[in-house]
Write a structure and sequence with these properties.
The complex is a heterodimer of chains A (124) and B (105). Chain A is mostly beta strands and 124 residues long. Helix content of chain A is 0%, strand content 53%. In chain A, strands 2, 4, 5, 6, 9, 10 and 11 form a 7-stranded mixed beta sheet that branches. In chain A, strands 1-3-8-7 form a 4-stranded antiparallel beta sheet, with no helix packed on it. In chain B, strands 2, 4, 5, 6, 9, 10 and 11 form a 7-stranded mixed beta sheet that branches. A 4-stranded antiparallel beta sheet of chain B has the order 1-3-8-7, with no helix packed on it.
C-alpha cells in the first residue's frame, strides 16, 4: 500500500516561506508515469490544487500561485517538496500530498493515494 | 478555469436511504471526473474516477454517472460509514473541486 507523509513546520510567519516535504513509501517516485501533487484545504473546507511534479522534473503549478511556488523532487530520498514564498494568512490551510494516477487519454488524473495532511497556520 | 458546482451543500439522510449528489461543470469534461469521500480529520479518499469507474475496494453501492457537464454520485442503501462529505473533481485540465456535500443524519 502506497503511503505518503507530509512534514514541515505548522506555523509560518507572514512574508516568510512555507516549506513542506512529502515522503513516499511502498512505491518509488521514479517508477511509472505518476505525478506527485500538493493539494490544500482551507478552513472553510474548499480544496485547491497547488502543483504537481513528475520524477523527470516536469512541473505544473496553479496559475494563481505560480509566482510564489516551487515543487521539487528528490528521487534518491524518494520524496518531493513544496516551497511557497511570501505567505499571508490566506495561505493558512491543511496541505496534503497525493499521488496522481495517470488515466490514458486524460490531461492528468485522479488522486488515488493521499497523505494525512499537515495544518499550516500563517501568523505572527 | 472550469468551475464545479455541487448540490446540495448539505443532505440529511437515514441509514438505508438512496442519496444523490449532483455536480455541474462550467464546460464539457470529456469524462474526466472523480468523486471523493472525506471524513472529519482525514484526507479525501478516491471513490470513483472517469465518471463511473469504482476505485478498488470501494463498495458497489456507490454509483457514478453523467456526461458532458452534469454528473451524479448515488449511494444506494446508505450505511453508517457513509456519513461524510463528498467532493467532485474535474481533471480535464487544471484540477478544480466542487464545494462539497455533507451527508448527515
Amino acid at each position: 500500500q502506497v503511503q505518503l507523509q507530509e512534514s514541515g513546520p505548522g506555523l509560518v510567519k507572514p512574508s516568510q516561506t512555507l516549506s513542506l516535504t512529502c515522503a513516499v513509501s511502498a512505491a518509488s517516485i521514479s517508477s511509472g508515469n505518476y505525478y506527485w501533487s500538493w493539494i490544500r484545504q482551507f478552513p472553510g473546507k474548499d480544496l485547491e490544487w497547488v502543483g504537481y511534479i513528475h520524477h523527470s522534473g516536469k512541473t505544473y503549478y496553479n496559475p494563481s500561485l505560480k509566482s510564489r511556488i516551487t515543487v521539487s523532487v528528490d528521487t534518491s530520498e524518494n520524496h518531493f517538496s513544496l516551497k511557497l514564498s511570501s505567505v499571508t494568512a490566506a495561505d493558512t490551510a491543511v496541505y496534503y500530498c497525493a499521488r496522481v494516477a495517470p488515466v490514458p487519454g486524460a490531461p492528468n488524473g485522479a488522486l488515488d493515494y493521499w497523505g494525512h495532511g499537515i495544518l499550516v497556520t500563517v501568523s505572527s | 478555469d472550469i468551475q464545479m458546482t455541487q448540490s446540495p451543500s448539505t443532505l440529511s439522510a437515514s441509514v438505508g436511504d438512496r442519496v444523490t449528489i449532483t455536480c455541474r461543470a462550467s464546460q464539457r469534461l470529456s469524462g474526466w471526473l472523480a468523486w471523493y469521500q472525506q471524513k472529519p480529520g482525514k484526507a479525501p479518499k478516491l471513490l470513483i474516477h472517469k465518471v463511473s469507474t469504482l476505485q478498488s475496494g470501494v463498495p458497489s453501492r456507490f454509483i457514478g454517472s453523467g456526461s458532458e457537464t452534469e454528473f451524479t454520485l448515488t449511494i444506494n442503501g446508505l450505511q453508517p460509514d457513509d456519513f461524510a462529505t463528498y467532493y467532485c473533481q474535474q481533471y480535464n485540465g487544471h484540477w478544480t473541486f466542487g464545494q462539497g456535500t455533507k451527508v448527515e443524519t
